[in-house]
Amino acid sequence: MTPGRCAARGRAGDGSWFSVVLFGVMAAGFAYASWSDIYGAGEAFLIVSFVLGALCLASLVSALRSGGRGPRN
User: Fold this and answer.
1) pTM of the prediction?
2) Judging by beta carbons within 10 Å of its beta carbon (0-12, 13-18, 19+), is residue 70 exposed, middle or buried?
3) Rounded CA separation 65/42 (Å)
4) If 34 and its partner were Cys, which of 13, 15, 29, 46 is the partner (CB 3.0–4.6 Å)?
5) Where is 48: in which H helix or E strand?
């Protein structure tokens, strides 16, 4: 790979932290929808929030194992 292409991709692990935040915010949103029973589908929203919460935790473990933010190349 050329140096320009590596720099354009960003640092390793940045996508993992984005996934942690994305799945966490979505899980919180669906948990709120479940709590407020929007559209009368609270149980369905609860299942979705648990699945997104599990994805958030898996992404968090992946981000922590990748070493976080390393030095720039």
Assistant:
1) 0.71
2) exposed
3) 34
4) 46
5) helix 42-65
HSE value, Cβ hemisphere, 13 Å, CA-based, for 42: 6
What does the pLDDT look like over 37-53, one tens digit per residue? 988 999 999 999 999 99
Where do we find the tokens 């933010």?
Answer: 69
d(CA 38, CA 29): 11
Tokens, residue 52: 């997104």
Confidence tier at 21 by pLDDT (50, 70, 90): very high
**Which residue would you say has higher pLDDT here, 16 or 19?**
19
**Residue-averaged pLDDT of the chain:** 82
For 12-25, give one letter per residue: b (16+ CB within 10 A) or e. Answer: ebeebbebbeebbe
